[in-house]
Write a structure and sequence with these properties.
alpha/beta, single chain, 33 strands, 18-stranded parallel sheet
Length: 530
């Protein structure tokens, strides 16, 4: 084959491939056009005359492209501002029953693109009723005005996207949605997801959901496979209710706003969250609650500015593995625990102590556990004796976590005793116990040379530690009657300090018997908070 013939064959081959490649899109376009015609025919057979918006919506379902029913396909155009949706006229109004038919009719489904019906900028007349339907394709309604709301109860959907839309109440109780539920940057009435099962993410990023003082989002006993996100200015005047819910990743409130004069906030009691609970940069009112009681989560991320008002925090039973990008200072965290309000709840303290210890802050963990017992004394159901014993444990050995604190008490008692007993000896109210030595002592203030000499430090130590015998207590003791026997002594003047010294000796002995076992118990670990 000549070179010229080879080049000719090459160019012929290229032209053939180009022609073949052009056939595919052309054939697809022809198929979409044919499908659009069939959908139009089926819709007109079912509903009669379709207006221009309905016709565009029905024909567009055969194609992948999103169909804009307003004057512009720019979502930021003033003509697509959902705040002005009441002014949208018949030219962009579609009937709710046409949408239901388009999403669920088996015959129509043969001609709908796998991406599902998708339209934007529509005003929907009537309540969209998808209840109990099994819809095989995603539903996309962007920037739409649906004042009568949507019923998804008991429905099975692939996914639903309501971004930038404005709707009335949405009921998705017991719905099963394989993919995502997207309600980003829209304005919605109350949303009920009771016992709903969502395979993907639940997104309320930038959304506003209104139901003053009531459940704005009811997701009790729901299951979310991915994240539940409330970010970027999410706003509500009601309660977000995730009680007994299960969330596969994180439950996140970041740059969220709770407003209004009624009750609002998050109630996630008994929820199981495989990821982290985020409560960061939250704007709140005095009525905003944060209820994480008996929640199990991988971690907690928060900031003090977002913490609710005192009495509006409930974290009793909240189990979390770590603090993620959150304050870990024990003193600040104790202020967080105090937001729960009056009452003694040991679990939040014990949980925080475990988290701090796991993070390597053993000192902080100890501080928290000591604070737990202090709160128990103030707010626990303790008798007076139990409160007194609680105080003794705090002051002496820090409830077993600071046992060496008892050493300082011991040094103090021994030192105080040394001074007092030395002063008593000089006043001759600490006297010999032997009769002969006593007679000599009261006569001239000096014991016989053969008699054991008094030592104030040894006397104090021996009476403080019961296991020591320094031969002081056997030979010397405070004697209230001594001043009456001393020549020239004033019995009445000497009796009072002598009795006081004897009373102190009893206190001294009891303190030794108390502090010594407490020190040993604290060092051995026998005493610890419950």
């Amino acid at each position: 084959m000549t070179a010229r013939a080879g080049r000719l064959a090459f160019f012929l081959g290229i032209n053939f491939l180009l022609a073949v490649s052009a056939v595919g899109p052309a054939r697809a376009a022809d198929e979409s056009a044919d499908a659009a015609v069939m959908l139009q025919t089926l819709a007109q057979r079912r509903f009669g005359t379709l207006n221009a918006a309905e016709l565009a919506m029905v024909r567009g379902a055969a194609m992948r492209n999103l169909v804009w029913l307003g004057p512009s396909n720019d979502p930021n155009s003033p003509g697509n501002d959902i705040k002005q949706a009441e002014r949208w006229g018949d030219a962009r109004t579609v009937r709710a029953e046409v949408i239901r038919w388009l999403a669920s009719d088996e015959e129509a489904g043969r001609y709908i693109h796998p991406s599902g019906p998708g339209f934007a900028g529509a005003r929907v007349a009537g309540r969209i009723d998808f209840s109990y339907l099994r819809i095989q394709r995603p539903i996309t309604m962007l920037g739409c005005y649906i004042p009568d709301g949507i019923d998804l109860s008991e429905a099975h959907l692939q996914a639903i996207d309501l971004r930038r839309s404005r709707t009335g109440a949405i009921n998705a109780d017991s719905a099963e949605i394989d993919g995502d539920v997207s309600m980003l940057r829209g304005d919605y009435g109350p949303v009920s997801l009771f016992r709903a099962r969502i395979g993907g993410n639940l997104d309320f990023i930038g959304a506003r959901v209104t139901n003053p003082g009531e459940d704005a989002i009811l997701a009790m006993e729901s299951t979310v496979g991915g994240d539940a996100d409330f970010h970027q200015g999410f706003t509500t005047d009601g309660i977000v209710d995730f009680r007994v819910a299960r969330i596969g990743h994180s439950l996140s409130f970041h740059d969220a706003r709770f407003v209004g004069g009624g009750d609002n906030g998050l109630n996630a009691e008994r929820a199981v969250i495989s990821g982290t609970v985020y409560w960061v940069d939250v704007t709140r009112t005095e009525h905003t609650i944060l209820d994480l009681s008996n929640v199990h989560a991988e971690g907690l991320s928060d900031d003090p500015e977002s913490w609710p008002a005192p009495g509006n925090l409930n974290i009793d039973g909240f189990v979390y593995g770590s603090l993620v990008d959150a304050p870990e200072d024990a003193a600040l965290r104790l202020k967080w625990l105090a937001l729960e309000g009056p009452g003694y709840r040991p679990q939040p303290y014990q949980q925080l102590a475990r988290v701090l210890a796991a993070a390597g802050d053993d000192g902080g963990a100890t501080q928290v556990l000591i604070a737990q017992r202090e709160v128990q004394r103030s707010h626990g159901n303790l008798s007076r004796i139990e409160r007194l014993w609680n105080l003794v444990l705090q002051l002496t050995i820090g409830y077993g976590f600071r046992p060496l604190r008892a050493v300082w008490w011991m040094i103090g008692f021994v030192g105080m005793g040394t001074l007092l007993f030395a002063l008593g000896y000089r006043m001759r109210i600490v006297t010999p116990t032997d009769a002969g030595a006593y007679a000599s002592f009261v006569k001239d203030g000096i014991a016989p040379a053969h008699y054991p000499e008094f030592n104030a430090l040894a006397f104090s130590v021996e009476h403080f530690w019961p296991f020591l015998d320094l031969h002081q207590g056997l030979y010397w003791r405070p004697n209230p009657r001594a001043c009456g026997d001393i020549q020239g002594g004033d019995a009445m003047a000497g009796t009072i300090p002598a009795r006081l010294l004897r009373w102190y000796l009893w206190v001294h002995i009891v303190a030794g018997w108390t502090l010594t076992p407490l020190l040993l118990a604290g060092l051995s670990g026998l005493i610890r908070p419950d």
